[in-house]
Amino acid sequence: MNAMKWSPAVTAATSTRELAHPSCAEIRLEGVLHALSDPLRLRIVRELAVVDDELSCSHFELPVSKSTTTHHFRVLRESGVIEQNYRGTAKMSGLRREDLDRLFPGLLDSVLGAATAQAARLGDN
Amino acid sequence: MNAMKWSPAVTAATSTRELAHPSCAEIRLEGVLHALSDPLRLRIVRELAVVDDELSCSHFELPVSKSTTTHHFRVLRESGVIEQNYRGTAKMSGLRREDLDRLFPGLLDSVLGAATAQAARLGDN
DNA sequence: ACCTTACTACGATGGGTATCGTACGAAGCG
DNA sequence: CGCTTCGTACGATACCCATCGTAGTAAGGT
Predict the structure, then answer these.
(1) Chain A within 8 Å of B111 (Cβ-Cβ)?
(2) CA atom of A115 to C1′ atom of C26, Å
(3) What does the alpha-carbon distance between residue B49 and residue B26 come to, in Å, rounded to a whole number?
(4) Model-level pTM?
(5) Which chain B residues touch A30 with a CB distance below 8 Å?
(6) Which domains does chain B have, with CATH numbers?
(7) Using a CB-CB distance cutoff of 8 angstroms, which residues of chain B are in contact with residue A120?
(8) What confidence tens digit (pLDDT) does each residue in A40-87 have?
(9) Which strands make up the sheet holding B90-95, listed edge to edge?
């Protein structure tokens, strides 16, 4: 879907920095569950949930390289879990709470609750 | 333990057919989400939920080979989602509802509800 | 203009996993 | 005792995916 080579000509500059998001109709439960099944991504989602606001990618201190971080954010965005947009040099990410709650009522909250419960059970970490 | 060419001798028979299950303390949220993120496995779990009983593996008519079916049931069992035991030649599978509800309250129900909602949204299939 | 910060794209790599076919083992039935 | 049904184990294959490093683009500050 983004394999285009993008013509080196004009390039309106602003249009380049648009990010593709799935519409609500395109969001699949299996994709959401898969996105949330990675420890790093679940951690990102939990942080986004507690601040209940958009955060820049660089706010997260993840034990992986920057390119890997980019990869995880893309998985979250393409599965419909988060929404991303550029603000200056920063790329802000926020949960698609309303969309998810409408599509899958209670799912996000129970996953977040389960993650918190498990973190407590395992001594946070 | 059984890589041998098969010694035709004693072979206690009953001890062979025990299945390993994770204890509650060993069940990980990420593992559960991963197990549920596969369409086939989600379908199995949904069927187990509606009948609210144990079902034999062969009851499911899945569009994959028998060995693949075995694989998916094993993933579900090793992640802690289902419980399995032999009954005669059949292998019965049932949801570990109580364990999951205790570990992750509301999670299973919201996933099942989300799956049902999505099935309705996509025209069942 | 330059430099810094922030993020991306690409290619590579290693491990995971979904799939299959074949061959075999265990229970039950005739 | 055969035969059937049900499921497993194993090896192979092909694809997915998490990870990295390098090189590059975009926006903003000085």
Answers:
(1) yes
(2) 41
(3) 22
(4) 0.88
(5) 37-39, 42
(6) 16-105 (1.10.10.10)
(7) none
(8) 999 999 999 999 999 999 999 999 999 999 999 999 999 999 999 999
(9) B55-56, B90-95, B82-87
